[in-house]
Amino acid sequence: MAFPKPFYKWRPHPWHGLEVGKEPPSLVQAYIEITPFDLVKYEIDKETGYMRVDRPQRTSSQPPALYGFIPRTYCGPTVHQLSPNSARGDEDPLDICVISERPIARAEVILDVRVVGGLPMIDRGEADDKIIGVLASDNMWAHVNDISELPTVLIERIYHYFSTYKLVPGHEVEIHIDRPYGREHAERVVTAAIHDYHEHFGV
Predict the structure, then answer these.
(1) 20 is a domain residue
(2) Residue ranges in the chain assigned as alpha helix (H)
(3) What distance in Å separates the CA atoms of residue 35 and residue 55, rounded to the nearest whole number?
(4) Is position 12 within any domain?
């Protein structure tokens, strides 16, 4: 029996076994960990590639967009250089929020995403940028090329979610988010994360 190419004998690791995208840094691939319907924070287990429960959300805030990461990216020294107030990169794949008109209610899906901007977030001193993109085939948002073309309230919701998603009463939140940046800078962050991945993993 002839298998199609590429054929994987085992499931590829979502971080290391998937492609970064068709035309990075402008058109990338996103692996989705959390949907707007999730009240539990899931994240990829770095060792196995399977989804792990990180924590139930303590607050009533829900993700306003699909949330995951760009495969074969790594937030290391080059990403840190683009975040001058951080002490280092967070050593995770680069996070991405994906806007879609039609509700997508399941995680562990792969999406083609057009990068339009991002949020410069620092979490406990570590650069933890949140790239913002639109589903490339979306009937309503596919024409958007820059974050400035998105509704302000939608960006405010994303900002509010990441400002509060680690909130614990009685504890100070060590998260700082500056003003959103546009597509040009977002593409620089994606390029830096791709570079850091190659430097760190040697591939």
Answers:
(1) no
(2) 77-81, 152-164, 183-201
(3) 15
(4) no
The Cα–Cα gap between 129 and 79 comes to 9
The mean pLDDT value of the chain amounts to: 92
pLDDT of residue 23: 98
Distance CA 188, CA 118 (A): 11
Confidence band, pLDDT 50/70/90 cuts, at residue 2: low
Report residue 55's pLDDT band, with 50, 70 and 90 as the boundaries: confident
Q: CATH number for the domain including 153?
A: 3.90.80.10
The answer to the question of residue 106 being in a domain is: yes
Q: Do residues 119 and 94 make contact, with C-beta atoms less than 8 angstroms apart? A: no
Domain hosting 142: range is: 27-201
Q: Cβ-count burial of 13 within 10 angstroms (0-12 exposed, 13-18 middle, 19+ buried)? A: middle
- Other Cβ atoms less than 10 A from the Cβ of 180: the count is 22
Q: Kindly state whether residue 22 falls inside one of the protein's structural domains.
A: no
Give me the mean pLDDT over the 80-102 stretch. Answer: 96
Q: Which of 66, 131, 120 is nearest to 94 (CA)?
A: 131
Q: How much of the chain, in percent, has pLDDT values that exceed 90?
A: 79
Tally of domains within the chain? 1
